[in-house]
Amino acid sequence: MNTPPNSRPTIPATGAIQPAADVQQMFDQIASRYDLMNHLLSAGIDRWWWWRTAHALRHILAKPEAAILDLCCGTGDMTLALLRRRPSTSSTRPILAVDFSHNMLTRGFYKFNRKNALAIEADALHLPVPSGSLDLISSAFGFRNLASYEEGLSELYRVLRPGGQIAILDCNQPSGVVGVLYNLYFQTILPRIGALLSNADAYRYLPSSVARFPRPPRMLQMIHAAGFRDATWTGYTFGIAGLYRATKP
User: Fold this and answer.
1) Bigger pLDDT: 141 or 27?
2) Quick one: which of 5, 47, 73, 188 could link to 105 by a disulfide (CB 3.0–4.6 Å)?
3) Are 187 and 207 in contact (CB under 8 A)?
4) Distance from C-alpha of 127 to C-alpha of 233, rounded to nearest angstrom
5) pLDDT(1) > 60
6) CA gap 200, 194 in Å, rounded
7) Res 2 pLDDT > 70
8) In terms of pLDDT, which residue wins out, 34 or 73?
């Protein structure tokens, strides 16, 4: 079950380091090559990260009645990984797949064909979802693009039911030798590949978005400050990515 994304423009969030409207336009421009670039630049490891995240959430995903939202879903690969863990019954609730880029979400819509997902074009800071209505919110490599992480966490807290969980998979900047190699790749090699195959500005933006994203200790503090409890971070692939999980009391 799916429906075309709403074509109305979203309302840019305020206070962005890079204006939200600019980020939205950038993702619209790179949508056609987004999947190819993700798989190429990660050497296919991104598929493992999605699978591992969905596996970690399998107990919630297995419940047909669970209300689930995949935030900043992009072209829908994380949504598809979650759907593979959902029961195949007529009573299973569809996953809400939310993104603010119309072009990205349109590509996701076609992936959701005859699958139990509902594509919704919306701003992550102003979700069109009633308060206290969701059991799980996931987000893969999109949360760091929000104009305000504090406002984003507050909005997630609002729409979750008591006992509901967040699962934020995103990039991290590791330390040590891995960090040196990571920075060399992200700041030098990746932008050049991006310029050749896609959009140079987008792949200059990517390293800067990772650099400004809070490191795990700080991010865990922010999650707790938003009201969540039992916040954890699990590093993936030498810590270059990781999964944040927490529960609304």
Assistant:
1) 141
2) 5
3) yes
4) 25
5) no
6) 5
7) no
8) 73
